[in-house]
Specification:
Layout (H helix, E strand, L loop, with lengths): L8 E5 L25 H14 L3 E5 L9 H10 L3 E6 L8 H7 L4 E5 L5 H8 L4 H14 L4 E7 L7 H8 L5 E6 L15 H17 L7 E3 L28 E4 L4 E3 L10 E4 L5 H6 L5 H4 L16 H4 L4 H8 L9 H9 L7 H9 L22
Parallel strand pairs: 1-2, 1-8, 2-3, 3-4, 4-5, 5-6, 6-7
Antiparallel strand pairs: 8-9, 9-10
Helix pairs in contact: 1-2
The protein binds iron/sulfur cluster (2 copies).
Amino acid sequence: MPENYNLACVVWELTLACNLKCLHCGSTAGGKRSREITTEEALKICADLKKTGCGGVALMGGEPFLRKDLFKIGARVRELGMELSVITNGTVHGDDIFKKLKALTPRAVAVSLDAADPALHDKIRGMEGAFAKSSVFIDRCLEESLPVSVITTVHKMNILELAKLRDLLKGRGIAWQVQTAGGEGGRFSKDFLLDREEFYSVGLFIEACRREFRPEELPVIGAHDLGYNSLLLNNVSLYEKWEGCQAGTAVAGIRSNGDVLGCLSMNDDRFVEGNALETPFYEIWNRAGAFSHTRGFKKEHAGANCAGCLHLEACKGGCNEMSLMKTGALHNDPYCFCSIEKEIFAGELDSPVKKLKMRLHGLSRGNFPRLGGLFSGKRKKKK
Ligand code: SF4
Ligand code: SF4
């Protein structure tokens, strides 16, 4: 008998079509896939997800509002008693969608905002006027008391926007999720990916925000896979405690052609477990031997970065997407805070963390908010 895995959440790419051309888009969205799930097929998948015991569905794209049946699919998700989230670029909206969205009682409506500077946001998103449209979207969600949140994807082009975004968002009842860009997308130069110091700095920034602002003023979180097992920082991510990659053990992704993967960020056909149009989702989920890269993890699978780590059993070698992107291997994430901190204290990482190190040595809960000053916009760029 296969082991029983409770499916907490499915991230569902409703379409690969998108009106924007975001530089960092991991799925290089733009045009539709040659075959995309029809409305009837989508409703059937909703029923299959319920039968699997799925707790919640996050509808995304591409841009999900380009599908006119988003509301019908969202309504079915809710009728079946599953939670609903919608992730959008916030630029495709008529005035009528906000009341319709509200009727779906979503758990979250997440909008992408990558910079407080409109010109920079538009440049990253590949459309003039994107910032203005997304800002209207956020304002209208707030007017309708929708649970709106902002997602910022950080890379070298916008890391210095974090402090300005913080100032733009604070006190407005907007939850803020900070995540880092991956290297899967075809439009994104890998030169723009954060190095380990910058990645760690994002964790410090989140921690500093959390210490400076009460959650009612600025609820800020890192993406679920942003740093973990730190000796110094509280867990900055969604999870209270990092227990390894949940792809295929608690979460799954569905592509707009029905392909099922543990994680859509691992955008590689090697990880396709089946197709929800051909095989009911619950059969794919419950198949013995499915999602073997997480369900079948053994310590011996860890790469050199993780072998021997005291966290290995629980951590399972960190985020597999990051691990693959940076090392080409699974279970070998070089961006966990645990290993970055080891290098900081061994003096192997250069500035700006060298500067931080001095402060970290004198770290106490009381003085931590001062680290927020590093993000005042005055930080020098690395040569
Ligand atoms: S070294 Fe590997 S196993 Fe240890 S905490 Fe980091 S990612 Fe996890
Ligand atoms: S591969 Fe990384 S991003 Fe994907 S589910 Fe696992 S931890 Fe999350």
